[in-house]
Structure formats: C-alpha cells, structure tokens
Amino acid sequence: MDILDYAFMQRALIAAVLVGITAPAIGIYLVQRRQALMGDGIGHVAMTGVGLGFLLNASPIWMATAVAVVGSVAIELIRWYGKTHGDIALAMLFYGGMAGGVMLMSMSDTGSNANLVTYLFGSLNTVSPQDVTTICVLAAFVVLVTVGLRRQLFAICQDEEFARVTGLPVRLLNLLVAVTAAVTVTVAMRVVGLLLVSALMVVPVAAAQQLSRSFAMTFALAVLIGVTVSLSGAVTSFYVDVPSGPTIVLLAIAIFIALALLAGPLARKRARGSAATAERCTLEVPAARVPQDDVRVQALRPDTMTTDRTSGR
C-alpha cells in the first residue's frame, strides 16, 4: 500500500520537511558561534514544558515552546553575565529541566512513560492535525528570521565587536538567535525528539561545510541535506518499523562521513588545478643576463664635433 494513503504519514512527511528546513537554517548560526550543543541544552529545558502541558491538559508543543524560550533567554543571560560559575549554572538549568519534565509527567493523569519516549526520540504516528498547524506556524517564524535577517545574524556570529561598531543591536540579535533555536527545538521534537534535535541542527551544516566555504552555499546545502535525511528517515521508519528520530540522525551522520571522505580528493584536485593555473600565468624571468642585453654607449669626443662658424651654422 502507498505510504501516502495513510493520513498520519501525510502529516508526518509535512512535519519532516519543515524540520529538515528549520533545523539546519538556525543550526548554521549556532555552528558559527561555536554553540553547536545549545540545541541539546534547550531540548532538556523543553522537557519541563512538555510535562507542564500534560499536567495542565494544555498543548505540550505550545507549553514546550514557552518554557524553551524562557530557558534560551536564561542561557543567554548566563553567557553574558556568568563568570566563574557560568558552566555550573548551565548544567543545573539543563538537567533541572529534564528532571522537572519527568516529574511533572509522572504527576499528570494523562502522562506516561510511553508519551515521554515519543517526545524524547520522536514518533511519526503521534503527529496530529493540530501539531501540523502549530509546526507550520513556528516553522514560518524560524524561516522568516533565519532568511530575512541573514546578513545581520551572520555579522554577529562572525565578529560581535565589529557588528557592535557598525551599529547592530548585538544583544537583541543574540537573544533572537537563542529564541529561534528554542522554537526550532519544539518544531522538531515530534519528528526527531528533544534529545536528538541538536544533531539535525549541526550534522547537516557540518556535512555541507565539507563541500562549500561560502555562507550562502553552505546554508543551501545544509537545508537540502536536512530535508533529504528527514524525508528518507520518515519513509524508512514507516517501512522498517524503527523510530524516526534515530533513523534521521544516523542518515545525516552517514552523509557527513561520505562527504568527508569525498572532500579530501576534491580538495587535492582543486589544489592541483590552482597550481597548474598559476604555473601557466607565471612570467618567466631569465636567470642571468646574456651579452645581447648589453647596451653600449659611446661618448663623442670634442674634436669630432665641427661647427661651421663662418657660415653661422
């Protein structure tokens, strides 16, 4: 039977495409800022929102979004003002969020360990029509920020001091990156899971960097890889009956390994081509002067210069 005959797979594939677009789109900025594991920390914090949603009989996605946004702002504040004990505070925030989510889930009447596993590692058959609507709204926000403000975000990720000198609101943009990452985590948790979403933010970007060094090309390749592995993982999960989150992540890692092995020969080939081009364009200079290059200058003696004074010439 065709995979599209199932309504839940139609919703899952839509969600997979949106996750494949949004996760690398914000992940490229996190990689540039050396914050590749930020998505993992936000995923831990978002677990409290999921547990709170089950406890209050509210939407787990919206509650996870709200808690993840608050947690991302707290992470940025700790990064700005935390000195000696900043890493300890972050660790307490991450693991406290996970512990709080498990505790709140156990206190709710509708929560269970099965529900917890679906949010931790993703599950295709649990994507509801309401989830698709929510994911579409949140994904639109992520794409609007990452594409519409790409120049400003690239500037602060490369050099915050230079961006500040040029007049950009650096702290506001840093907060926007953190909030967008938090929203992306909640977008992806139904397909990839909270514990694995960080991999989908980082691995496609790292794979794209094996082939490209420009920001625009890396962005496009990372999104293409993200969509490819998300759709492939969803289809594989359906036919092989395996969890979607681990399948997507393993496919992304396989593509990274393949491109990393291919990048070496391509780099050597480009280097040889550049060397050959430089050799053709090199101007050869003689090593020594030959006798034909000598120029003799002979001065005229006074007695050879005659002047006809009688004629006035």
From TrEMBL:
The keyword Transport applies. Gene3D superfamilies: ABC transporter involved in vitamin B12 uptake, BtuC. Pfam families: ABC-3 (PF00950). The chain crosses the membrane at residues 12-30, 61-81, 88-107, 127-149, 161-181, 187-207, 219-240, 246-267. It comes from the Bacteria. InterPro entries: ABC_BtuC-like (IPR037294), ABC_TroCD (IPR001626). It is found in: Cell membrane; Membrane. CDD domains: TM_ABC_iron-siderophores_like. Keywords: Membrane, Transmembrane, Transmembrane helix, Transport. The keyword Transport applies. Coiled coil: none annotated. It is a multi-pass membrane protein. Belongs to the ABC-3 integral membrane protein family. This is Metal ABC transporter permease. It comes from Streptomyces fildesensis.
